[in-house]
Design goal:
Length: about 350
């Protein structure tokens, strides 16, 4: 069947039918409704992001989130929109957001479903005022505990247990990219009809890229393996495509999306300012694991340097991990530098 140009709803329903036909029950049923609710919320967020410069919605709220960062109004708007769009659908038993300290229960009186939604409502928010691309990231798991109410334990599942993951990038156009474990597909929002249209079918990332993305201003605080790897990328050797170009927006979804389409490696390694307490920045559940699922489905790889991101069993909701993600050969070379410089 030629899918080119079909809208997301038809695509999701077709995919569900294929799964049912194959009697693969892993992601059938409510997942379609859940994804549709998500696309609705993302259209509303996209509308607000696009008019952010026109209305008085930009600026700080003056409060801090649990990571000690200033919360912007648009973050709160996106967080609230997602929650409101998802709470009543009957598909979810619990949610968790980067912007909330604790798990978010489904209110009493609403039907409960078997899925768990974890999300970063507006990633890269420090870029909002500069009109750079920002994004929403989501991860979906299936309930594993008994009973109707979702618990913290249901949220703390490893990446390889995800049933779906995706992101919405609010850039020169708005795009939704997602996987249910059967490849990665991208949809571009056509504002004239208000629908996401299949524009990037079955995305495969290059096995080796030509660019790296990292906040190199932090390099003094990286481990030796990471520093040596970046030095290696900057050396001249045309037989291995070096030197690589540096491309860093500082907005994870935007950096990840570019590398997914063009090939490349994104690195946010641990910071060893305090050698006894290395600190990571990116969150396992809302950022690293969903993007790892997508990149693996596109043929790439995601690691902390030592562990595959998809294998990490979370111990807390807001756990942070080093994230090195992108083209497979590049990530493997990085891992080699880490193991040789321990
Ligand atoms: P956020 O979730 O508060 O927006 O922070 C995450 C962002 C990522 O989008 C980006 O990759 C990273 O922080 C950039 O960090 P830095 O400014 O240290 O380079
Ligand atoms: Mg974030």
């Amino acid at each position: 069947m030629d899918n080119k140009g079909i809208e997301i709803q038809r695509f999701i329903v077709n995919e569900e039918r294929k799964l049912t036909d194959r009697r693969d029950r892993r992601t059938t049923g409510n997942l379609t409704g859940l994804l549709m609710d998500l696309t609705y919320a993302s259209k509303i967020i996209s509308r607000e992001v696009n008019k952010a410069g026109l209305v008085d919605i930009l600026g700080l709220t003056g409060t801090e989130n649990i990571h000690g960062e200033e919360v912007k109004k648009l973050d709160e708007f996106a967080n609230d929109k997602l929650y409101r769009a998802m709470e009543h659908g009957g598909h979810l038993c619990v949610m968790a957001s980067e912007e909330n300290d604790d798990i978010i229960p489904i209110p009493k009186g609403y039907p409960k479903g078997k899925y768990i939604l974890l999300f970063d409502p507006l990633d890269g928010s420090s870029n909002i005022d500069a009109n750079a691309s920002i994004g929403t990231i989501f991860s979906i798991h299936k309930k594993k505990t008994d009973g109707e109410i979702g618990t913290l334990e249901d949220c703390l599942q490893k990446g390889s247990d995800q049933v779906a993951a995706g992101y919405i990038i609010y850039g020169s156009s708005t795009m939704l990219v997602y996987t249910t474990g059967k490849g990665v597909n991208g949809f571009t929002l056509d504002p004239s009809v208000g629908e996401f249209i299949l524009s990037h079918e079955n995305i495969n990332t290059l096995s080796k890229g030509k660019c790296y993305s990292a906040n190199e201003g932090n390099s003094a605080f990286w481990n030796e393996g990471t520093r040596k790897y970046i030095d290696y990328l900057k050396e001249k050797d045309s037989s291995t495509g070096r030197p690589y170009s540096l491309r860093y927006i500082g907005s994870l979804v935007a950096d990840f999306h570019r590398n997914l389409l063009y090939g490349g490696i994104f690195l946010y390694p641990a910071d060893y300012r305090d050698p006894k307490k290395p600190k990571a920045k990116l969150r396992l559940l809302y950022e690293a694991a969903p993007l790892a699922f997508i990149v693996e489905q596109a043929g790439g790889m995601a690691t902390t340097g030592k562990e595959n991101i998809m294998d990490i069993v979370p111990t807390e909701l807001h756990q942070k991990v080093p994230l090195i993600i992108g083209s497979k050969e590049d990530v493997l070379t990085y891992k080699k530098f880490i193991s040789e410089n321990e």
